[in-house]
Amino acid sequence: MASKLKLILGVFFAIALAACGEYGKIYKSKDSQAKYKLAMSLYEEKNFAKAVPLFEQLRDAYRNNLDSLEDVYIRTAYSYFYMKDYEYASMFFKDFTDNFSRSSRMIECAYMALYCDVLFVGNPDLDQSKTSDVIEALQTFINFYPDSEYVAKCNQHIDELRAKRHTKVYLQVMQYFRMEEFKAASAAAVIAIKSYPDIPQKEELEYIAYKAQFLYAMNSIESKRIERLEKAQALLDDYFYVNQMLGEHAKDAKETKLKIQKEITKLKSII
């Protein structure tokens, strides 16, 4: 949010400069060639915040000059990219592919739009709801352009996004567990295992599934405890089936199984 605000203020400041100096005169003029020359110069100097307002004007001025308009579109997209406004950059790269589908740089811009989407997804602790859509779009790109120089990068992005999604899911389960929301922790762990069978933290999630269910059962009233303990037992059986006695939590699983059996026997003698 802070970087986004900084970017907006930077562009606003650049526009404000239009009121004075040589930049201001060119910005307010109708001389497209002068604007293009200055915009390109600012772009090469990496002064993207001042270049963008000029590029925005040139998009209208070059509406009927496709060669120049193509260059302006790309420079605008890359300006936003270098300013780390990946949402806007992606939008301009996608607009380029829509408007210049026959351009020699169309595939490049199609990839860059996806790359911006990858960067916009953010860190694993942020919302990952768009991750699946981005992964699907990357795979579609690979299918359409299997010989593209960007295929290796797309595969790398897919691996990275899957890792982020796995981490996000795992952190959510662990948060429930640490907060002692055991019912939610167990359910979330089971869903994570079914949804992402290749998740690196699979053994840990299988442990949380049975352990959280066991703790949830033990904190339940007696009339509900047997049913919930039996569910924990089933999850334990799943753990042993997958990991045998080789899992990191095998010792705990064995001890928990004995506790479950003992508690169920005790409860059945009472009821």
Key structural traits:
271 residues
Can you tell me about this structure?
This protein is mainly α and 271 residues long. The chain has a domain of 68 residues. Helices cover 79% and strands 0% of the residues. The protein contains 13 helices and no strands. Helix 1 packs across helix 4, helix 5 packs antiparallel against helix 6 and helix 6 runs antiparallel to helix 7. It starts with a helix and ends with a helix.
One letter per element, helices H and strands E, the order comes to HHHHHHHHHHHHH
Shape: elongated
Kindly state the number of beta strands: 0
How many separate helices? 13
Overall pLDDT level: 90
The gyration radius over C-alpha positions equals 28 Å
Biggest sheet record = none
- Helix proportion: over 70%
**What is the SS-derived class?**
mainly alpha
Summarize the structure.
The chain is mainly alpha-helical. 79% of the residues lie in helices and 0% in strands.
List the helices and strands and how they pair.
Elements (H helix, E strand, L loop, with lengths): L1 H15 L4 H8 L3 H13 L3 H14 L4 H17 L3 H14 L6 H16 L9 H14 L6 H28 L3 H14 L6 H17 L3 H22 L6 H21 L1
Helix pairs in contact: 1-4, 3-4, 4-5, 5-6, 6-7, 7-8, 8-9, 9-10, 10-11, 11-12, 12-13
